[in-house]
Amino acid sequence: KELNFKVEFFAISQVDNKFIKNLNHGMGLSTKLFFKKHLLQILKEPLQDKICKKEVSYKCDELVYTFKEENHQIILNITN
């Protein structure tokens, strides 16, 4: 609550072994099943206070490749 996250906690005994298979990183969760079950709920969340940029960055070795859209053009910026 202090960090403004919406979270529910469950006991280990509540793991259903169908949707969530284990408690390791990733929980053995099927990404396809996750989105099938929760995508509509995620999309209905209000976008207030969320910043959305039209850019993506990829790090490769010592360089960072940043692609962004400006004036209907894709701009590439390479930094190290």
UniProtKB/TrEMBL annotation:
<dbReference type="InterPro" id="IPR022605">
    <property type="entry name" value="DUF2920"/>
</dbReference>
<dbReference type="Pfam" id="PF11144">
    <property type="entry name" value="DUF2920"/>
</dbReference>
<protein>
    <submittedName>
        <fullName>DUF2920 family protein</fullName>
    </submittedName>
</protein>
